[in-house]
Design goal:
alpha+beta; Beta-Lactamase; Phosphorylase Kinase, domain 1; Transferase(Phosphotransferase), domain 1; 3 domains
Length: 632
Amino acid sequence: MRRRRWWLPVVVALTGLVLTATTARFAHVRGRAQRDAQLADAGAQLAFAVRERVRLPAEALQTLGAVIAHAPTIDRATFESVAASVHRRAPPIYALEWAPLVAHDQRAALEAQARAEGRPAFAIVEPGPDGMAPAAMRDRYLPILYIYPENPAIGFDVLWRAEAAAVFFAACASGAATFSPRYRLIEDTDADRASVILYEPVWRGGQVPADPEARCREVAGAAILIFRVQDMVGDAISHQRARWLDVALEDVSATPPALLYENRPGAAARATGGASRAVPLELYGRTWRLRVGWPAPPPWPWLTLLLGGALTALATAGTGGAVWYLTHHRRLRSMTKLGQYRVERELGRGAMGVVYQAEHTLLRRPAALKLLAPELSDAASRARFEREVRLAAKLQHPSIVQVYDFGVTAEGLFFYAMELLDGVTVRDLVADHGPVPPARAAALVRQIAEALREAHGKRIIHRDLAPANLMVTVRGETYDVVKVLDFGLVKRIRSLDDEELTRPRSEAGVVIGSPGFIAPEVLRGREAAERVDIYAVGAIWYLLLAGRAPFSGPTPTVVMQSQLRAAPAPLHKLIPDLPAGLAELVADAMQPDPRLRLRSMSELLLRLDALELPAWTQEQARRWWKDHRRRT
């Protein structure tokens, strides 16, 4: 019997070795697959975040360029007012600038204008042996006349620097905003600090010449946007929680590719090979490449076999550790809470914050949570956010998204909870299904107008009504219910007894909304009133009936220019059998002159009732939704 027992420890040891090796191999393969999936997901999310941190300021720059293009003259005070509003909406911006293109015989007059505006030492300058010196005589100059926020580049002639001049003339020749390569600003002493500059060419009246050669002869100047790449990408990394990764951004349009950013020394070199991901970014005439990778490979699991001894214990610990690793992040996500709400997933994000799908922990009621962006967590932004939530909560119309409550996170960020909707936006409804029958369009518009009538009655205007923030959904057994979303840009209508008269007017005259649906008077810098919502309703009605927006173009600037220059194609020409009264009603709602526009939502509804259009029944709506859901 003794001879038969000697093999028992050997069997136990061999069994433990097999279990340990099998478990280690499984954990290694499973962990590598999970890390690869996490890396791909992190790369995609980070690339999206970088694009958004470029796109939103770039669209704001186009709006700034449009304001300059349509202003007969622009002075320092006007520029700084508009630029300050844009800058507040996109904090990663380093500077916004206006550089007019002036001939040599206009140089003295421009310098005199700047001095009269409060810059007694202003001159068109270029770098000299002892600092900045008056620019040498040239046929034309592109001096930086206005800057917000202030920096030492005031008066610098962009054309002095050959690479900057090349980007400016490439932008005006193409008629579109263009990024510079990696750039070192004149105020920078750190050679490793990279910036990129976006040049938006501006033509007076906003009319881009059709002839590419004429564009650079007739261009009035450039609206300029400067990004510190470190601020822009570092902000995106912090919000995407990618600090543990190696991240590098390269400009592959340059020869050889130029490194724009790395989050730690050597990250660009390490973020290559199999344990990395590369995502291309096509942005305003240049191609960037975003690389993400793990800082170091994980410890080789087979080293555990060298420890000897308690192999079974190691296998148990390894298995337990693998299970903990695989479930830890999932558990943490399921426990994430904001107040009484458990966060489930992100739905979308915008300039003011992020929207999540959530559930009330006690009531089990689904909700949508909007969280104020961390960069907007200063006292003024929090006060404005809280004021807007309280205003939106006053609106009780069934076609306005319902606000449940609001609160503050442990980090001090504001959020509010609203009803969660499952439907289709008006934008996607038209994009996917084409024009809407007049009866259905009238039924949808009626709900929008009735909702806004209540808001206007409580002295609240929306200001950014657009197809993307109108949801068509089903509530219980009621079909085609319209919900007006995103009162994040709501503005209280001022009156003599309104408490807001005592507050600073930080945004007077500047509204950034949805191109094609912004009232023309707002584009010209006038104060928004109730009739801007009437214009937007008319434009949305036009979209529903025609299956296309009333104004279109390749860029937001072109769309806004079309609004200011021309009228949309008449509906009766696009839809010959459309009732004449309906076409006239839409045209009256879209009158470019607010004095000729419909006066109120009540008037719009009275005119609609007088048309006596065929009814859009719940049975028709039910059949549409049944077919729609079956096909999707």
